[in-house]
Design goal:
binds D-malate; 14 helices; Aminotransferase; alpha/beta; 42% helix; aminotransferase; single chain; pyridoxal phosphate binding
């Protein structure tokens, strides 16, 4: 057998694939597992979006190859969304490309910019695809610690100058997965200045920009003056419209990055099935009450989870955005041993912080994307096995 390519050998198994296997094993052994693991909305895609997909499915032209960079109508809907929601003007032909979910675009942008041994700045902890995409492209991640004392923002001034000079990409993601932190417009302005100084492409993952609470409305990185000259933003229909399985997203912003990503993709995939893109147009252009209702539901779950964790001894503030809680593990545990303990003793799956990088040690993530009664049941079980915790 030929040897597997080194860059694939270096790739760790995908975090949520490992967790899925663990859940399947436990269920096969008869355990009633409750998963607070992957952030996969449990409610169905809203009806008006499903109806549009059904209607479009009956149109024969939609059964053929889609254009690889996306339907002009979908890219126009993305541009309208940016104008309406963030006051950002985008040229839909040149500054937007459709993606088969933002995950593949994030991995492929690393292929577009990194030659072997070149550096991408990757937050730690972060969504595993930033590092994974970099490694697959033959590049090297340089990790930027996200620490509680910095509000889980990277300290750009701490990046050694010689590393910043060698780096070509800076990955960022606010509202943040896994820490649920949010970024201010002044932080984004600092990012633009840093990218200009070191000639970097900023790749901002905005998957959670619509999942926010208590009246807070996160902004787009592209709304920062100068952002479009240094960066692209990855958008996703998955989280706001409960469409994770549909695989639909986009990249928008810097024209060269959009063009090169579209060119790479047209060589390796054939785009998104058109009925799905039409459903996406319906989602973006249609009534937004469904997004508000989902946020109200996550807010309710957030509040009851925060109250339960506080009763157990955690000192936590309710996050302003995302459907995650990022919590310190009690004393005597590592991230892994705590996650293992909860599965074994309570049948509850949480994600160990180390799944998102070395600096995730000492934390675990709870996802609120499960029916409220199951979340309550998970919290009751955790209280039963943990009692009062200390740190
Ligand atoms: C997560 O749980 O971190 C996300 O749902 C994973 C993803 O978006 O692929």
């Amino acid at each position: 057998m030929p040897a597997v390519a080194k860059r694939v050998k270096n790739l760790p198994p995908y975090l949520f694939a490992r967790i899925e296997r663990l859940i399947a094993e436990k269920r096969a052994a008869g355990v009633d597992v409750i998963s607070l693991g992957i952030g996969d909305p449990d409610e169905p895609t809203p009806e008006h979006i499903r109806e549009e997909a059904k209607r479009q499915l009956e149109i024969p032209e939609n059964h053929r190859y889609p254009t690889s960079v996306g339907l002009p109508a979908f890219r126009q809907a993305v541009a309208r969304y940016y104008a309406r929601r963030f006051g950002v003007e985008l040229n839909p032909e040149r500054e937007v490309v459709t993606l088969i979910g933002s995950k593949e675009g994030i991995a492929h942008i690393a292929w577009c910019y990194l030659d072997a041994g070149e550096v991408a700045l990757v937050p730690d902890p972060s969504y595993p695809v930033y590092a994974g995409g970099t490694i697959l492209a033959g590049g090297e991640p340089y990790y930027l610690p996200l620490l509680p004392e910095n509000g889980f923002l990277p300290r750009l001034e701490d990046v050694p100058t010689e590393v910043a000079r060698r780096a070509k990409i800076l990955f960022l993601n606010y509202p943040n997965n896994p820490t649920a932190a949010v970024a201010s417009s002044s932080f984004f302005a600092e990012v633009v200045a840093f990218a200009r100084e070191f000639d970097l492409l900023v790749c901002h993952d905005a998957a959670y920009v619509e999942v926010a609470f208590d009246g807070y409305r996160p902004s787009s990185f592209l709304a920062t003056p100068g952002a479009k000259e240094v960066g692209i933003e990855f958008g996703s229909l998955s989280k706001p419209y409960n469409m994770t399985g549909w695989r639909l997203g986009w990249a928008a912003g810097k024209e060269e990055a959009v063009e090169v990503l579209g060119r790479l993709k047209s060589n390796i995939d054939s785009g998104v099935f058109q009925p799905i893109q039409y459903a996406g147009i319906k989602a973006l252009d249609g009534p937004q009450e469904c997004v508000k209702e989902m946020n109200a539901l996550y807010q309710l779950r957030r509040d009851l989870a925060v109250a339960a964790f506080r009763e157990m001894g955690w000192k936590i503030d309710p996050p302003k955005a995302t459907f995650y809680l990022w919590l310190p593990v009690p004393s005597g545990f590592t991230s892994e041993s705590f996650a293992e303990y909860l599965v074994e003793e309570a049948g509850v799956v949480v994600t160990p912080g180390t799944g998102y990088g070395r600096h995730g040690e000492g934390f675990f993530r709870v996802s609120l994307t499960l029916p409220t009664e199951r979340l309550q049941e998970a919290l009751v079980r955790m209280k039963r096995v943990l009692g009062k915790v200390s740190f």
